[in-house]
Design goal:
The protein is an alpha/beta fold and about 300 residues long. It has 2 domains: about 160 residues, P-loop containing nucleotide triphosphate hydrolases (Rossmann fold, 3-Layer(aba) Sandwich), CATH 3.40.50.300; about 100 residues, GMP Synthetase, Chain A, domain 3 (2-Layer Sandwich). It is about 35% helix and about 25% strand. It is built from 9 helices and 9 strands. Strand 4, helix 3 and strand 5 form a beta-alpha-beta unit. The protein binds guanosine-5'-diphosphate and magnesium ion. Magnesium ion binds next to helix 1. Guanosine-5'-diphosphate (GDP) binds next to helix 1.
């Protein structure tokens, strides 16, 4: 085992959809946080662990900062702020879209980071879809707005800039004291139980396949998880807010549910390294997003 000398927590902060979860997955090399083109994909704090050379990075992915419209939304924003409070460093993620400026959510986060006195690196993501000269004014406005430790243009999609990002972040990890252990085993990728990952993978597929607002009203929960050696039997419940949504989730002759199931199963098999038998159930629970009891039940 290589000697780990530095270990620390880094929270990924930023508005919805800038690619926080994608960057974390790309850094650790496996998908542990779900990703989608819809805002508010990430609902709780998700840990991704990267152990490389002398360093162990414990990344904390957070929901994007947004103006909450439900109790679930309130809880997500609270998670963002709470996560910032307990970390050694912050990674603020932005996109260089339109005219260079520091947006309102970014300004709020930077104010918080400054008050907490934690060091912060800025990642300008999605440079695979940005013209190079367009990035410079963003670097300029941000470097004037906050004393970043580094500003790194990256692409979670192509991997561009990621090694440099890791290098900059590793400078911010606290040294371990003599005889202290790192926080996680070097083989670990996440602290999420497999049950939670299974439910999240199903929710991700729903986010990709369902239109507009429907996926935001959906929760998923693993009801059964039986590890039988080379195969796992997993049952996941999909909870929707309306009877009409249930029909859409199931689809014509069950076509939608079948697609969701087979795609989610493939992702599970890849991460868990075994065969998976996945069964999906669909239930309706009215307005669960505003029910304290149900939010607790779903782990939010
Ligand atoms: N072109 C491109 N798309 C990206 C990149 N990183 C993320 N995305 C896409 O942006 C969307 C939001 O990504 P996600 O990681 O869920 O963002 P989050 O809400 O900040 O966690 C998804 O459709 C991703 O595929 C990137 O580097 N390049
Ligand atoms: Mg996310």
């Amino acid at each position: 085992m290589s000697e780990i000398k530095k270990c620390g927590t880094i929270s990924l902060l930023g508005r919805a959809n800038v690619g926080k979860s994608s960057i974390m997955n790309a850094l650790i090399g496996e998908k542990v946080a779900i990703v989608s083109p819809k805002p508010q994909t990430t609902r709780n704090r998700i840990i991704g662990i990267l152990t490389e050379g002398e360093s162990q990075f414990v990344f904390m992915d957070t929901p994007g900062l947004h103006a909450p419209k439900s109790k679930l939304g309130d809880r997500m924003v609270k998670t963002v702020y709470e996560t910032a409070e307990e970390v050694d460093a912050a990674l603020l993620v932005v996109e260089a879209k339109g005219e260079a400026h520091v947006g309102k959510p970014e300004a709020m986060l930077l104010k918080r980071i400054q008050a907490l006195g934690i060091p912060c690196v800025l990642a300008i993501n999605k440079i695979d879809v940005t013209e190079k000269p367009a990035i410079l004014p963003w670097i300029d406005v941000y470097s004037k707005a906050f004393p970043f430790q580094a500003i790194v243009p990256v692409s979670a999609k192509t991997g561009d800039g990621l090694p440099y990002l890791t290098e900059e972040l590793s400078k911010l990890l606290p040294e371990l004291e003599e005889g202290d252990m790192p926080m996680f085993d070097p083989d670990e990728l996440t602290d999420q139980p497999e049950r939670q990952i299974a439910a999240e993978f199903v929710r991700e597929r729903l986010l990709w396949h369902l239109e507009k607002e429907i996926p935001h009203g959906i929760a998923t929960m693993t009801e059964t998880f039986e590890d039988k050696g080379d195969v796992s039997e997993i049952g996941v419940v999909i909870v929707c807010e309306k009877q009409s949504h249930k029909g859409i989730v199931i689809g014509r002759h069950g076509a939608m549910l079948k697609t969701i199931g087979s795609e989610a199963r493939a992702e599970m098999e890849k991460l868990f390294g075994c065969r998976v038998f996945l069964t999906l159930y669909v239930r309706v629970k009215d307005d669960w997003r505003n029910s304290e009891f149900m939010l607790h039940e779903f782990g939010y």
